[in-house]
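example protein:
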Amino acid sequence: MHPLISICIPTYNRADLLDYCLDGLAPLRDCGTPVEIVVSDNGSTDHTPDVVAAHRDRNPAIRPHRLPENRGPAANWYNALRKANGEFMLYLADDDSLIVDNLLQHIETLKREPDLVAIYADWIAWDDQAEREIHRHFGLSEFMSFGPEAPLDLVNFILKKPLPPEISVYRRDALLRAHSFHAWSLPFHLTMYRLSRLGRIGFDPLPFYREHRILKDRFHRTHWANMAQHLHMLGEELRLSYEEMVLMAMQDAGASSLTEEQATMVRRSIDRILHSRIALEVDRACARKDWIMAVELRRRHVLWHGPGTEDDTRQDVLKIVIPAALQAVQQTFNSLSDTAGLCLRGFESGRIAEFFTKYYPDTPLLAPESKPNGGPAPLIVHRDAQTLAQDAAACDPGQAIVLEHMLDLYRVTPAKIDLKGF
């Protein structure tokens, strides 16, 4: 039977996650709608082919395709798109999941309204370990749509209410016409606008997609494609995408250039959109355990919007600043040759040791009184300048770090950070 829906899953070297993802699609077998699952393997070197073959034996809806080597994420996605056969199609990351009933509601809408070429839906940032929703992205309360007859209405909507057009159900023939390769890898706004030239596009608050922001404990991401593009979502690449979208809409509306007033409005709108994503990217940086990046992004937010409440400042210290300083300690350790391990001195509790045990378990933690004894020296981490001064065995500054000093390097506000309890 010819499929009505194609679920396209590009994958690379995440066999266990893909196995879990495909298990989650099992309810589609009994949904009453012809579905195919197109898996495009970007030349994986792990046991991904075995996982795909095992699922293919159990589920004939799975259609595997494999590139001979890794040709990049854009090519892998395009391969899946070109190999799909369904009238409607969607993208699914190999570490995420679908809400099947909601997806089928969107398919029914597309079948009922033939001029609708795509539905952009809100999606859920999901904690799969706790099985709970973290947040959504759209903030819409009702369905809205825009067609080719009013290009500036669509642009005004996107600039005033920055909905990221990343999760969608498409008419496949329209997406094939609208898709193109770009100098950057995430041209969502351009694809969205090109689709609006071909028919009506909708924005729907009903989510069908869960982005597994936090995985179950048994899984570990070796790479995270969308998170690796975090600076794209804040900087010049996303700005280019918005500016190209505005240019196309302006030309479609019959104008040759923006007035000075319009140009000022567009610049301010794009700046506001870029700034609005900073808090999300801070959370994503923490999820990647890149607290140093989280500090740098949070500083940008504080520059333009202020530090927030006293509780915001406390949360910054506990969730971003102290972890960033400890990440820097770890990076210092990794940059040194012939270093025996970390030696923590002067701390009032075991909280710092617990952090390294949890997040950097391969880093040896030595007893506070450890000495070289002719072998590699430890990297000594002192709680503050006072404990360093009291250390009769204080060593070369090249082999010591003072956490209090590190916190000053990574602080977000000028307030002194109290290490009481550490």
Notes: The chain has three domains: 5-223, 228-303, 308-410. Residues 228-303 form one domain.
